[in-house]
């Protein structure tokens, strides 16, 4: 059976390695970055090729989530994503503090999908959204790779084993901590577990009987923006 873990990343090579690094963010982004850094540290492939591959995977896995939110304003099948817990909170933050919210989403597991869907539903500029994805992904990848290689230079061969395991253990511990913190203190907005923090989105398409948007609505909005 094929498994994706620290050892398997270090053992991969060629197109299988690069395809795995590119596709894994569509399933779990943090594990993908840890796996890519593991492959780089183990010398499974040149780092200068691994980095753009994981970057491309991260951006590709997130760029389309914007359109789930945007289409949620027009179609019932997509609207269910706008109803997910955390979207209304993320929407408030997207409109007030776009860059800070996108940075939070990149580094805090559990906040990404609500944030990216909210960016589309609340009509953040798509080019700005993609450029911010690239920036936050580059920052995240840089930090992880620098840490892996810096610690690996100190610890030697043993780092190839304990660094990935330790990183995955920390990731799992953090997710468990956020869940326990939510259950005990009801804290942690913008996570999938914070339904009680959400608020009604009055006047938004698809909510409380408000009609979905149409092509005519889109055209009117474009004319209004052009006039302004």
Describe this structure in words.
This protein has helices at 6-11, 14-23, 29-42, 47-63, 65-71, 76-82, 87-96, 98-107, 112-121, 126-155, 159-185, 215-227. Helices cover 71% and strands 0% of the residues. The protein is mainly α and 228 residues long. The protein has one domain (6-227).
Notable features of this structure?
mainly alpha; 12 helices; single chain; elongated; 71% helix; 228 residues
Gist of the model:
The chain has helices spanning 6-11, 14-23, 29-42, 47-63, 65-71, 76-82, 87-96, 98-107, 112-121, 126-155, 159-185, 215-227. It has 228 residues and is mainly alpha-helical. Helix 3 crosses helix 10 and helix 5 (65-71) crosses helix 9.
Kindly estimate the percentage of residues that lie in beta strands according to DSSP: under 5%
Low-pLDDT stretches are: none
Distance between the termini: 59 Å
Q: Give the C-alpha Rg.
A: 20 Å
Largest sheet features: none
The computed structural class is mainly alpha
Task: Tell me roughly what share of residues is in helical segments.
Answer: over 70%
Helix-strand pattern:
HHHHHHHHHHHH
Number of helices: 12
Average pLDDT, all residues: 80
Shape: elongated
Number of domains: 1
> How many individual β-strands?
0
């Amino acid at each position: 059976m094929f498994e994706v873990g620290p050892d398997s990343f270090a053992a991969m090579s060629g197109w299988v390695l690069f395809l795995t690094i590119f596709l894994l963010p569509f399933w779990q982004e943090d594990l993908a970055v840890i796996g890519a850094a593991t492959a780089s540290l183990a010398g499974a492939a040149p780092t200068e090729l691994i980095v753009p591959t994981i970057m491309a995977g991260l951006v590709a896995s997130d760029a389309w989530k914007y359109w789930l939110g945007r289409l949620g304003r027009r179609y019932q099948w997509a609207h269910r994503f706008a109803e997910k817990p955390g979207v209304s909170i993320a929407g408030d933050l997207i409109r007030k503090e776009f860059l800070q919210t996108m940075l939070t989403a990149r580094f805090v597991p559990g906040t990404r999908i609500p944030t990216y869907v909210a960016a589309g539903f609340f009509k953040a500029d798509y080019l700005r959204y993609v450029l911010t994805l690239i920036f936050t992904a580059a920052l995240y990848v840089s930090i992880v790779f620098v840490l892996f290689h810096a610690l690996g230079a100190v610890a030697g061969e043993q780092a190839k084993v304990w660094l990935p395991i330790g990183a995955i253990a920390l990731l799992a511990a953090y997710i468990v901590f956020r869940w326990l913190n939510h259950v005990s203190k009801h804290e942690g907005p913008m996570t999938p577990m914070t339904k009680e923090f959400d608020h009604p989105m009055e006047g938004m398409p698809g909510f409380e009987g408000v009609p979905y948007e149409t092509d005519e609505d889109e055209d009117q909005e474009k004319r209004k923006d052009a006039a302004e």
